[in-house]
Amino acid sequence: MNTQTDSLRAKIGKYLFIFFVFLFLYLPIIIVFVYSFNTSKMNILFEGFTTHWYSSMLHNQLLMEALKNSIIVAFIGTIVSTVIGTLGAVAVQRYQFFGKNFLESVLYIPVVIPEVVLGISLLSVYTAVSMPLSLNTIIIAHITFCIPFVLITVKARLAGLDRSLEEAAMDLGANRFTAFYRVILPLLTPGIASGAMLSITLSLDDVIVSFFTAGPDSQTLPLQIYAMVRTGVTPEVNALFTIIMIVIMIVIIGNTVRQVHLVKKTK
After folding, report:
1. 3-state SS of 84-109?
2. Which among 34, 38, 31 is positioned nearest to 52, based on CA atoms?
3. 248 Cβ contact list (under 8 Å, min separation 6)
4. Which residues contact 152 (CB under 8 A, 6 or more apart)?
């Protein structure tokens, strides 16, 4: 009897722990969703239900311009950093060249150094070459700190691949490029996708590096919201974030359904 009671208590404790962990993680998201329908502009207390902020958000020129800039920066930065990071991972993992050990040593520096140091360093470089701050300088900055994340992710995936697959393709008549394109690259797709998603996430929510490299007419969404904090964040921001979260959830659910379908298809 005592054993059954202890087992029941352990199960209840486990589920309560899981519940509070998920509550801690998702309660802020739920609050943002609820307050996007708040009639109060101050966002302190929920005073009533309205959908006004969703239409008002679309007419907020500063917010929409910042969102457009963030999407442009994230899109271009992710594509360029993914291509460079993937090619760099293949070079570091598969080939021997002068300075390889040094490159692998300094690879983690952009990942571990404080963002404020990276931001000031990039600003110093732009100043030294007399490059005016604009959306282009933000894109270059985001490419700079996204490449190591892609490279590390793809390199880890590449390290787990059997080199005999590439050698077998070359034995069957494929040259090195064809073997990479037809055999290795499809196998690297999960790692490349993970690196790209990590890059776009880091780019969309970056504040510090963007703060040092942005010009007066190139505000991104995080910088615009940071500026709004001084006067108060309106429910328009909550409405925008709610839409972004819904889009992300649709993508995640769609990807999960696709993976489940592929697993069932292989069986």
Report:
1. HHHHHHHHHHHCCCCCHHHHHHHCCH
2. 38
3. none
4. 89, 107, 108, 111, 195
Provide mean pLDDT across the span 203-227: 89
Strands (E), the chain: none
Number of helices and strands in the chain (H, E): 13, 0
Tokens of 193: 């996708």
217-249 pLDDT, tens digit per residue, is 888 999 988 888 777 778 888 899 999 888 888
- Give residue 204's identity as a one-letter amino acid code: L
Instruction: Give the number of other CB atoms < 10 A from CB of residue 152.
Output: 20
Alpha-carbon span 231 to 236, nearest angstrom: 14
> What is the distance between the alpha carbons of residues 179 and 171, in angstroms, rounded to a whole number?
10
Using only the alpha carbons of the chain, give its radius of gyration: 24
- Using the structure block, give the residue that is written with the tokens 């999407």: 71
DSSP 187: H
Residues in the chain: 267
CB 208 within 8 A of CB 119: yes
User: Do the Cβ atoms of 152 and 81 come closer than 8 Å?
Assistant: no
The secondary structure of 203-235 as a DSSP string is HHT--HHHHHH--TT---HHHHHHHHTTT---H
CA dihedral 35, 36, 39, 42 (to 10 degrees): 60
pLDDT tens, residue by residue, 59-117 = 888 899 999 999 999 999 999 999 999 988 888 887 777 877 888 778 888 888 888 99
The C-alpha atoms of residue 244 and residue 249 are separated, in whole angstroms, by 9
- Beta bridge partners, 38, equal 49
Tell me, what DSSP letter sits at residue 230? T
pTM of the predicted structure, to 2 decimals = 0.84
Say which amino acid occupies 66: A
> Alpha carbon 96 to chain centroid distance?
31
